[in-house]
């Protein structure tokens, strides 16, 4: 918000873990009718919601999926190129056949931000661009502010008890799912797919 990163050029987001390796025949997670997009549906949808929180609506998606790493019928690997209404483009990768890794990197004209969510906590680094060939070191920093894995649940509880709209709302969830469905269409057709507006 302060402009410290300059103009955002692009981003890279990866969400992966090896939970897909324990999916057995007959499990809903291995059924493309119940889990379209595989890991993109299971965990990538949360990344999509986060990306839209930062960058606004996604209008088009181009996606390739791989199905032959494990024995499930759902996608083992999804690599998506997302285009936002603002013109920003970036990648979202979702795998469920490799060790745990959740990264989010933002590339700006003045600085880059690199984050790595690990079991022991979030690591964040900033790299500032110098035009006079100085060493562009990655400097660790702490992300401040209140954060809790239960915030969505608290918001839902508050909406029930006190009224109002929970965050994320049903519409927020539907918007993120519509990107997953567009990615699935793109992977199956080999074409860029438009994300339909829900309003």
Can you characterise this structure?
By secondary structure, the protein is of the alpha+beta class. 25% of the residues lie in helices and 31% in strands. The chain is built from three helices and nine strands. The chain has helices spanning 39-55, 151-162, 170-189, and strands at 8-16, 58-66, 77-84, 89-95, 101-108, 111-118, 121-128, 138-140, 193-194. Strands 8-7-6-5-1-4-3-2-9 form a nine-stranded mixed beta sheet. A hairpin with a 4-residue loop joins β3 (77-84) and β4 (89-95). α1 packs across α3 (170-189). The chain is globular, with a radius of gyration of 18 Å. The relative contact order is 0.20. The mean pLDDT is 90.
Short structural summary:
By secondary structure, this protein is of the alpha+beta class.
Topology:
Blueprint: E1 8-16, H1 39-55, E2 58-66, E3 77-84, E4 89-95, E5 101-108, E6 111-118, E7 121-128, E8 138-140, H2 151-162, H3 170-189, E9 193-194
Q: What are the main properties of this structure?
A:
199 residues, alpha+beta, nine-stranded mixed sheet, 25% helix
Please tally the helical runs, counting DSSP H or I stretches of 4 or more residues: 3
Which regions are unreliable across 5 or more consecutive residues at pLDDT < 50? none
Number of strands: 9
Radius of gyration, whole Å: 18 Å
Derived from helix and strand composition plus strand pairing, the structural class reads: alpha+beta
Overall shape: globular
Helix content: 10-25%
Q: Provide the residue-averaged pLDDT.
A: 90
**SSE series:** EHEEEEEEEHHE
What separation lies between the terminal Cα atoms? 27 Å
Proportion in β-strands: 25-35%
Sheet with most strands: strand arrangement: 8-7-6-5-1-4-3-2-9
Describe the largest sheet. 9 strands, mixed
